[in-house]
Design brief:
Largest sheet: 4 strands, antiparallel
CATH topology of the largest domain: Jelly Rolls
Shape: elongated
Structural class: alpha+beta
Strand order of the largest sheet: 1-8-3-6
Strand content: 5-15%
Order of helices and strands: HHHHHHHHHHHHHHEEEEEEEEHH
Distance between the termini: 45 Å
CATH class of the largest domain: Mainly Beta
Length: 426
């Protein structure tokens, strides 16, 4: 029953996402097609007519449910007025005030604010960097402004006399392409002179667009430069840290070999994205959710350890909270044979070599990612039986005996299982 309910919820979520995407596309289509039709007066026929009616129907259907919600009722009435296809229901050429009602639907442009929130919402649920998301929204607003400036140019007759003798597209859309070309060149530069104003209204409109273009162009160039520079703040911070460290080592005249080891360490940190502050990133999450994240990241390692086989979900969630990350350089000793054992280790990345210093005849044991060692220290206090040395850069998780004993005090029934596993492993 729970599985069926979960599948139903997943299917419902997928249907809602699909509907949200279709609703967004319908809004974009209406904002593109409707102003062109109002300014050029072309007649809908065939498949184009069906598509326009379908988009209008989707907008109305999307608004109606919100009319019954007190929290969204006021905004829903406004959306309903701008969603009703009055431009389709009232024929072209009608006098005032019917003509004004046809143009009332242009207020649908306010829906662009919802697009901006939708884009921001999708960015938050995706893995896009914040700067990339802002860049996408900036491009959206530029394209929308370019589109409506082109519509205004058509409305004041700016495309008269500029149509090609044999247009590729139908006349209304070919006129829109000419207006869009004029709008883009005027916003980006000052135009190329192939489409020019012919009366005072068109000249004043051109002056307004040129001044707007100068400001927009400067803002866009500065904004894009800033966004691109901030696309990878981690790289900038990493390079800044490297410069400071190298300057310090140069000032103190560190030996070349030590400098190379330090730089090799920082290169490894960057290439493997270590030290990115995962704990700080998830610090605001509830403890239960942090436990789930930690268990997701480390479950594969814990499941390989006989000590923890048969452990309940609650026990594993608490174990992963106790793991401490440790990073070792190539050739580092994790511990030496004869040292007092006070922790066990899990190999998260890289490999280690277990060898005996007292008995060189014993062959070394290579332990790769997913392996573990030192688990006897969790139940017994005694010396290490072998030394552990890293074979390269190695990332380990450490589980100390002190914190593990505190955990066992909460789960006394599980301690008998651990004692039996240790006896078997011997």
């Amino acid at each position: 029953m729970n599985l069926l309910s979960r599948q139903q919820r997943r299917l419902r979520a997928q249907l809602l996402r699909g509907w949200a995407l279709l609703y967004l596309l319908a809004n974009l289509f209406v904002l593109w097609e409707m102003p062109i039709r109002l300014t050029t007066g072309y007649e809908l026929r065939g498949a184009a007519q069906m598509l326009v009616w379908a988009a209008a129907g989707m907008l109305v259907a999307g608004v109606v449910p919100h009319l019954f919600d007190p929290r969204t009722r006021r905004e829903a009435w406004y959306d309903l007025v701008t969603s009703l296809p009055l431009d389709l229901l009232l024929p072209a050429g009608t006098g005032m005030p019917w003509a004004a009602l046809r143009w009332l639907r242009v207020l649908r442009i306010t829906e662009a604010m919802h697009f901006n929130r939708t884009l921001a919402h999708w960015q938050g649920r995706s893995q896009l960097p914040p700067a990339a998301g802002r860049l996408i929204r900036l491009v959206f607003w530029i394209l929308l402004a370019d589109h409506f400036i082109a519509i205004g140019w058509i409305g004041i007759g700016g495309t008269e006399g500029t149509m090609p003798a044999s247009p590729t597209f139908s006349e209304p859309f070919s006129r829109y392409i000419a207006a869009l070309y004029w709008s883009t060149t005027t916003l980006a530069t000052v135009g190329y002179g192939d489409i020019t104003p012919h009366n005072d209204i068109q000249r004043l409109y051109s002056v307004f667009v040129m001044f707007t273009g100068v400001g927009v162009f400067g803002y866009v160039i500065g904004g894009i430069a800033s966004l691109v520079a901030n696309l990878d703040l981690e790289r900038v911070e990493h390079q800044r840290k490297r410069i400071l460290v190298n300057a310090f080592m140069s000032q103190r005249r560190f030996p070349r070999q030590l400098v190379e080891k330090v730089n090799e360490f920082y290169y490894y940190l960057w290439s493997h994205r270590i030290g990115r502050g995962e704990e700080a990133a998830f610090a605001e999450l509830p403890e239960s959710l942090r436990m789930e994240i930690a268990l997701f990241l480390n479950r594969r390692i814990l499941e390989k350890v006989p000590l923890f086989q048969g452990a309940g979900e609650d026990f594993l969630k608490e174990v992963v909270q106790l793991l401490k990350p440790r990073l070792y350089m190539p050739g580092d000793l994790v511990f030496r044979e004869g040292d007092f054992g006070n922790a066990m280790y899990f190999v998260s990345n890289g490999s280690v070599e277990a060898f005996s210093e007292s008995d060189p005849v014993l062959p070394p044991i290579l332990m790769m990612e997913g392996s573990y060692f030192g688990e006897i220290a969790l139940t017994e206090q005694g010396p290490r039986t072998r030394s552990i040395r890293t074979t390269g850069f190695c990332e380990l998780y450490e589980l100390s005996k002190d914190v593990f004993d505190q955990l066992l005090a909460k789960y006394p029934d599980f301690k008998a299982h651990i004692d039996e596993t240790i006896r078997t492993r011997r």
